[in-house]
Design brief:
Elements (H helix, E strand, L loop, with lengths): L1 H5 L4 H37 L4 H39 L1
Helix pairs in contact: 2-3
């Protein structure tokens, strides 16, 4: 959501990214989760009245936001596992 907003998404684009993510989850597992919000944001932004270039830019913003959030979660999870293992083996 933050990536889409940073690239100028409207409520239409955010809604489209959400709907696209849900549909993508059922259609194509990991690829669908990445491509679904991208396509959903583009389609809903076009329906909301934006031009194609701006809609594509917003679609890329959703992908960048998704990937950034995923990388952040992986980093936090890795630190948590490291702390756990440290506590287990030093106690």
């Amino acid at each position: 959501m933050f990536g889409a907003k940073k690239f100028g998404a409207t409520k239409w684009g955010i809604t489209g990214a959400f709907v696209g993510g849900i549909i993508g989850l059922f259609i194509g597992a990991i690829y669908g989760v990445i491509i679904g919000p991208f396509i959903g944001a583009i389609l809903f932004e076009l329906l909301g009245g934006n031009k194609l270039n701006q809609s594509i830019k917003i679609g890329f913003g959703t992908v960048i936001g998704f990937l950034g959030g995923t990388i952040g979660r992986v980093m936090i999870s890795t630190v948590m596992v490291g702390i756990f293992l440290f506590k287990v083996f030093t106690s």
